[in-house]
Every structure is written in structure tokens, then in C-alpha cells.
Amino acid sequence: MKLPFKIVPFITGLPMFVLLLVISPSMAQDSVQSLHGTIKSARTQGIQNEEIDKLIQRAREKEVSDQDIAGILQPAVETATEHFPYNLVINKSLEGIAKDVQPNVIIKTENKLQNNVRIAAKMTDEWIKNPTIQDLIGRNGQTGSDNTFRNQVLKSAARAMFQGVPTNELRQLFTDMAQGETAAHMYPKQVSVAIGVLPDLPTTKNHPDVSRAIILQSIKRHFTSSQIQQLPSAMIRAEQMGQLPAEAISNNMKNQMTQGEVAMTILQGLFDSNGNFKGGPPTGIPPGLNNPHAPGSHGNSHGMNNGNGHSGSH
After folding, report:
1. Is the dihedral of CA 133, 137, 139, 143 positive or negative?
2. Second label for 42, Cα 20 to 30 Å away, from 123, 138, 251, 290?
3. Which domain holds residue 94?
4. Phi and psi of 188, rounded to 5°?
5. pTM over 0.85
6. Which of 147, 176, 198 corresponds to the end of one domain?
7. What is the pLDDT of residues 57-71, one digit of tens each?
8. Are residues 139 and 169 in the same domain?
9. Distance of alpha carbon 38 from its chain centroid, rounded?
10. Per-residue pLDDT tens for 217-229?
């Protein structure tokens, strides 16, 4: 009967990993089996081997356990199962691993993004059914069964929500972009880029209506995707330089001018007459601002094009 009392000091002197094996020899094996099962599910749902291997390799380099790796991979598997773009979740996982974020925090962040993706998917799918948007898709050589456009918009919307843009503000931008004049000037690449810059515009937090006006005016006036992408940094730099004070963007502007006039006032100071970012006082106007029929691609000598080989006009 004294045997148990002799075992106790022996066990308490063991290293922790040995102690775990003494107490539960199957725990390590269960962890491996859990990861193998998650990997199998990931492959079944269409997640590429390269992406799975990259996540596992990066996690193991950071000494993340197999059990935690399985937990980190699971939200991506669930996202793929729902036929949503899972690479958003994979990329967020890799970002957290690279920054040495604790696995439970990574998983919590993934779950938040996963929820954003679900909301964005519902919003996007409803919006795409709009006849105006169907016309946009058709005139750019795509079909209703082509998910490329849908997934691009969905991902931009999910990112915007993840970065703090309220759902109702995003929904309003969707509604505005489906209106006749705006939709008539849009091409697919512009849509995802326009949604993507919304959380980065300095006016969005306090004056989201002004941000929407800026985006809509940039589309109507044939700004290229590259120029739209430059809007947040250009506005921030112009404000910091004192060339475009914050009050010129937001304070009392809503009560003094129409939203379109606010947007035009801001945009005129951001690019030179060749369409290049300058961030200083206006010495020229971007392509299309002085001529509603001018193509937005003229003079854009740098940056990303609209992605489909077309100019901003159709």
C-alpha cells in the first residue's frame, strides 16, 4: 500500500512533456490525428496543398503545437465548406503566426473575419442580382456563373467590415454604386477597389457619407483603379501638409455643399493634369474631371491598371 507514495515524488520530478505522456499516453497521438483530420478536410474542400503546407511550416517554425495548428486551420476549412473565398482566412492566419500572436487569439480573429465573410457574401449576392449590376457584368464579357467578380467584391467587403466599416455604411455604398449614372461608368475592377479604400479614407470614421461621395465621384469621373487606390494616402498627405485641411474634407461641408461638390473639391487637389499623384495644391485636374467623356486611363503612367485592359469609360 506504500507504493503510490513512492511513485508520486518520482512523477513530480519529471519534465512536463514526459509527465503528460505518463498521465495520458494517447494525448500526443490524438493531437497528430486531429491535425491529419483537419488537413484531410481542407483538401476535400478545395484548399490547395501549397497553402496548407505553408501554414503548417510557418506554424511549426514558431513551435506551434499540432493541436493549435489544427485549430488555426479549421476556420479556413469552414469558410471553404460554405463556398466562400477561404484565402482571406488563410492569409490572416499567416499574419498572426508571423507576428507571434497566441493561437487562441489567431483563432478568435479568424472567427471574426469568417463572420464578416458570411455577411459580405449575403450582401454581395443580393447586390449582384440587381439588373444594373448584371448589365455591368455582361458588358465586360463575364457571365452570371463567373464567380471571379463576385469573389473580388466579397473579399473587399469582408475586409472593409473587418477594418471597422459598419455594415449599414457598406450596404449604402453598394446601393449608391448600383444607381444609373454611377453604374454606367463602372467596370468590375473599380468596384472591388472602391470598396477596398472605404476603411482607409480619413473621412470614413466621422463622415462616411463624404467618403461615399468621394468614391462615387471618382467612379463617375473615370478615375482608374490605380488612382482610386491612391485616394486615402493622397488625402492624408495633403491634410498633413496643410494643403487640404481636415475641415475642407468634412467639417460643415455636408451643410454647405452637395456631396458631389465636396468630392470634386477634394479630388481636384490630389492629381496633376497627367493624372499622377501629387498631394499638393491643385495645379490641374485628373482625367475626366473637366470632361465627363474623357477616358480615365489617359495619362496614368504608373501604378496598377484597371485589371481588364479597358479604360474607365464604356
Report:
1. negative
2. 123
3. 73-147
4. -50, -45
5. no
6. 147
7. 999 999 999 999 999
8. no
9. 25
10. 888 877 888 888 8
Pairwise CA distance, residues 302 & 309, whole Å = 15
Q: Please check whether residue 9 lies inside any domain of the structure.
A: no
Both 212 and 248 in one domain: the answer is yes
Same-domain check for residues 197 and 288: yes
Instruction: Report the chain's C-alpha Rg in angstroms.
Output: 25
Residues contacting residue 79 through CB under 8 Å, at least 6 positions apart: 85, 86, 88, 89, 114, 117
Cell numbers at 211, concatenated: 467618403
Closest CA to 66 of 40, 98, 28: 28
Q: What is the 3-state secondary structure (H, E, C) of 150-165?
A: HHHHHHHHHHHHHCCC
Q: How many residues does the chain have?
A: 314
**Residue 40 forms part of a structural domain:** no
Q: In sequence order, which residues have a C-beta less than 8 Å from that of residue 91 and are 6 or more positions away?
A: none
Q: CA angle, corner 50, sides to 44 and 54, nearest 5?
A: 115
- The amino acid occupying position 233 is S
